[in-house]
Amino acid sequence: MIVPWRDRRGQFLPLKAAVFASAFAPAIWYFAWWIMGEAGGRPVTEAVQGAGLWAIRFFLVSLAIAPAARMLQWPGLLLVRRMVGLTGLAYGLAHLFFYTMDQMFTLGIVVSEILLRFYLTIGFVALLGFSALGVTSTNGTIKRMGRWWKRLHTLAYPLIAMGVFHYFIQSKANVSEPVFVAGLYVWLMLWRVLPMAWQRGVAVYPALALAAGLATAGIESAWYGLATRIDPWRVLAVNETLNFGLRPAHYVLVAGVVVVALVVGRRVAGRFGRSSGRIAAQPT
Questions:
Q1: Which of 155, 169, 175, 260 has the greatest CB tally within 10 Å of its CB?
Q2: Share of the chain above pLDDT 90, in %
Q3: Burial environment of residue 115 by CB neighbours within 10 A (0 to 12, 13 to 18, 19 or more)
Q4: pTM for the full model?
């Protein structure tokens, strides 16, 4: 019997157990919030938005696992990538389920809304794509498909981009969090186009942080300019100062700086560990 917290040999893995437990945490939180009557006047709508938000978050985390595993020299992280991606799919399906519930399970209305509203069409197509990736994530399918499996699953990159775009459009006026998510997505995709030798270095990560921050500012100004007719140059200018508080681009830059600190800290710890090992190995 295959259980999520064990490896193929049946050994217990604390990391997989912790990730599996954390997958249920948002659902438990929203359920408790609901039964305590703190979900507002439209709890189903809150559930729709909450499930969709956590789907995006888990998909983004799944995208971050490969960079984190390489930067932190922690290959064991790759063992939970499939679990995190499937968790994102589960919340995406819950997002669709609660939306259908919000429409009183009237499938005709649900279908017509998906066909007529562009942001729903984008979200539904992305969910279909993620469902296809989820169905083909079994060990047997991976073995049968061989190299084609990896090619198929590169579709996760544009699918996540579609999910972020869906998040943008449905957020209406305040798009601060979608802009932040888009900035993180840009960082993760920029990392993937780097040569492998550069990914192992340290100097490239400050440049990645700066590039992602600038891209985030550009995304925010472009969005407001195209969607709201607000002068994009004014929005861009706001990112050049802290007088109006932190903008999404600033948060992305801070996240990039945190990554730099983690990479440097891991390298220093690794060298210190090797030095200590050599000293301990010397005869006394």
A1: 175
A2: 57
A3: exposed
A4: 0.90
